[in-house]
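Hi R.,

As promised, here are both runs. First protein below:
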Amino acid sequence: MVHPPLQSESVLLARACGGDLDAYEQLVRLHQQLAFRTALVLARNAADAEEAAQDAFVKTWRALPRFDRSRPFRPWLLAIVANEARNRRRAAGRREALVLRAAVASAGPADAPGAPSPELALLVAERDGALAAALERLDERDRQVIACRYLLELTEAETAAALGCRVGTVKSRLSRALERLRAQAGTEVLHG
């Protein structure tokens, strides 16, 4: 299926608020990856995250007539995604380990120009593994705030919306969480 070129988010949002399903589908395409990643951080399970993101998009569509268009759309959407993900996690009672992978930017095959040497790739993988292990040892709230800000690259306002708290709370939680992460990982991992 060939999709028409995407319009600006504000135009799509105005059309979607007026009931245009095609415009809403384009909004979904714009935000689906971030919605899934946000749900994954909170649900800690890919299947639950996918369902939470899908349910959130359905709920968002139904709630669009009540959306205050003077406010940004993305934080509002992410708050709905986060609520769905937390609800799924609570309902399922899942407590399995959060799989956080620090993606290593690859330049292609090892013999490609500019590709890291096998030694460097091993050192990076070891550092990333140590960092992921340190993240896993943190409590849930610390993992969530770090994941939202640094792995998902959400703004402080978007992180606050996703976690259901105030921006000031995000700042203080993040500061304390990073201190605990440094203590868990050791400074050589974070500054190496």
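And here is the second one, sequence first, then its structure tokens:
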Amino acid sequence: MTRRALDIVVAGAALVLTAPLLALAMLAIRLESPGSAIYRQRRVGKDARPFDLFKLRTMVDGAEHLGAGLAVNAGDTRITRVGAFLRRTSLDELPNLFNVLRGHMSLIGPRPTLPVQVAQYTARQRGRLSVKPGITGWAQVNGRASLPWSERIELDLYYVEHRSLALDLRILLRTPAMILGGSGLYKGHAGGWEGEL
């Protein structure tokens, strides 16, 4: 089975199985704060093609225009109570499955980043754009956003250079522990994006 076919089968099955949970989460978001339950954000995918990433909204509506803008850290007052739970459990990423079905993303690959970040990539860092971005990836299961950006991108490049079904399986097997642990969600004092947002 090809990687694309596997993406479609797994993402489709996951959406069917989690549909009640997704509906419940969307209702909880709407009950707590006004605005759409689905948050769209422009990201950059394979070969630097832009696309709209779908997530469950975890912050107040219009949060990107308030406070720290696109930067988010632990204790951010823009994060709602429901949003904090969705982030901690990674349930806010469930709508990424629609991105997989649409062909913008894969189940496994580097997390898609913002156009402003891609504009600041070095030539080497642009190598992470040679594959589809993923819901989970090598950098995700090795520290997520708590890692310094330079380390995260090197882990992504390692994945691109060593991409295989065996490595994908290792990532899939380590993803549940990463989600259940709820660690690495925020950049911390020394990690995260090091450029301008």
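A quick note on the second one: The helical segments are 3-32, 81-89, 96-101, 115-118, 149-162, 165-181. Let me know what you think.

Best,
J.
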